Amino acid sequence: MEIGLNHYLFISGALFALGLYGIVTRKNAVMVLMGIELILNAANINFVAFSKFGNFGFDGQIFALFVIILAAAEAAIALAIVLNIYKTFANVNIDEIDNLKE
């Protein structure tokens, strides 16, 4: 049995669904960030799979590399914000931090 485009799309869809579930259902900011990372990884799998099976050359891999760089920058900045929120409120639950409006 050969691994085809459908297999990659199934894995990518499952990762996207897990990431979306993690974003919607979790109250912890770190878990929401992990859900965003899963969604970005699902996009990377799609980029590489369509590049491989669509004969687009290395365009998919280049886009995936840019997404990885974006994810690393997003993780660093978001974790700095989460640490600052924890230092200020001693809590990282998204629902309980509503004092940022003031």
What is the gist of this entry?
This protein has helices at residues 5-25, 29-53, 59-89. With 102 residues, it is mainly alpha-helical.
Descriptors for this entry?
102 residues, mainly alpha, Helix Hairpins, 3 helices
Structure description:
It is a single chain. The protein has 102 residues and is mainly α. It has a single domain, classed as Helix Hairpins. It is 75% helix and 0% strand. It has 3 helices and no strands. Helix 1 packs antiparallel against helix 2 and helix 2 runs antiparallel to helix 3. The longest helix is centred in the C-terminal third of the chain and has 31 residues. The radius of gyration is 17 Å and the shape is elongated. The relative contact order is 0.13.
